[in-house]
Amino acid sequence: MVSFKQRDIISIRHFNKEELLYILDLAKEMERTTYTDTLKDKILASLFFEPSTRTRLSFESAMQRLGGMVIGFADSGITSVAKGESLRDSVKIIEGYCDIIVLRHYLEGSAQLAADVVNIPVINAGDGANQHPTQTFLDLYTIQKTKGALEGLTIGFLGDLKYGRTVHSLAYALAYFGTEMFFISPPGLRMPRDSIDELKDRKVKCYENESLSGISKKLDVIYCTRIQKERFADPVEFEKVRGVYRLSKAMLEELEIKKDLKILHPLPRVDEMDESLDKTNYAVYFHQARNGVPVRKAILSAVLGVIE
């Protein structure tokens, strides 16, 4: 029997196919049924050391819609961190005020560190360029809803695949479903070699390309990501790849694509995806963002043990 009760959500690698599908099924139930007091008297600590809109607000919305309460911050500069307090000490103190912690931090491994320190569940809302597991759950949910299934799809990942934590997590999860993957990026932003090797070890058909030319007609889904300026140590290196890809309605009309192609993007977008796409049937990224609420409702309910 699948159980998420009191489990940390640190990496998508910690979950098998059955567990992934369990959360997706629970998210469907959360969308169909109104739960108003499921998490009554439960408190979520929302700790965001990096900027966030969708992840932070959807977690807070999910918690409040289930009757729970939220404490926390979106600017660590107003906390004791500004005085030099360590992350270890911060989460140990905050543990005494809440039932579950959602943490976003710029350092890779920060969520695991927090989980090792406290005795309540920790949910990783993004640790540097490493992992963003709840984004992966909602990406899977969106693909399943818009394509009707997860099995046997061909997906193109486009953009920053080196620093794109959403891509790393999603590719790993999709390997359970017989997905064929195309990684499309400039040479300097390729998918990490160890990730490619691991996928191939898992018998995933995966290919690296520098453009959509010649492969666009094969794709069921394009998962677009922005070039992440904040991950570059050298601004000059960022400028070399800035704007290298720009998806638009006109571009898609020039390419040979499937009529039921769907385009996802974890957002925010900058200049890699034109607004002309927004009103096309290809665009599902705003629905993708909204799916964060039922998916995070499911995760919070399962981890806090109120739904089994």
From TrEMBL:
InterPro entries in the cross-refs: Asp/Orn_carbamoyltranf_P-bd, Asp/Orn_carbamoylTrfase, Asp/Orn_carbamoylTrfase_sf, Asp_carbamoyltransf, Asp_carbamoyltransf_Asp/Orn-bd
GO biological process: 'de novo' pyrimidine nucleobase biosynthetic process; 'de novo' UMP biosynthetic process; amino acid metabolic process
Binding-site positions, carbamoyl phosphate: R54, T55, R104, H132, Q135, L267, P268
GO molecular function annotation: amino acid binding; aspartate carbamoyltransferase activity
Chain ranges of the Aspartate/ornithine carbamoyltransferase Asp/Orn-binding domain: 151-302
Residue span, Aspartate/ornithine carbamoyltransferase carbamoyl-P binding domain: 7-144
Reactions catalysed, as given in the entry: carbamoyl phosphate + L-aspartate = N-carbamoyl-L-aspartate + phosphate + H(+)
EC number(s) per entry: 2.1.3.2
Recorded metabolic or biological pathway in which this protein acts: Pyrimidine metabolism; UMP biosynthesis via de novo pathway; (S)-dihydroorotate from bicarbonate: step 2/3
Pfam families: OTCace, OTCace_N
Binding residues annotated for L-aspartate, in chain numbering: K83, R165, R226
PROSITE patterns cross-referenced by the UniProt entry: CARBAMOYLTRANSFERASE
Gene3D superfamilies in the record: Aspartate/ornithine carbamoyltransferase
Superkingdom classification of source: Bacteria
Keywords per UniProt: Pyrimidine biosynthesis, Transferase
Family: Belongs to the aspartate/ornithine carbamoyltransferase superfamily. ATCase family.
General function of this protein: Catalyzes the condensation of carbamoyl phosphate and aspartate to form carbamoyl aspartate and inorganic phosphate, the committed step in the de novo pyrimidine nucleotide biosynthesis pathway.
Subunit structure of this chain's protein: Heterododecamer (2C3:3R2) of six catalytic PyrB chains organized as two trimers (C3), and six regulatory PyrI chains organized as three dimers (R2).
Entries under PANTHER family matching the protein: ASPARTATE CARBAMOYLTRANSFERASE (PTHR45753:SF6), ORNITHINE CARBAMOYLTRANSFERASE, MITOCHONDRIAL (PTHR45753)
Protein name as it appears in the record: Aspartate carbamoyltransferase
Species: Candidatus Jettenia caeni
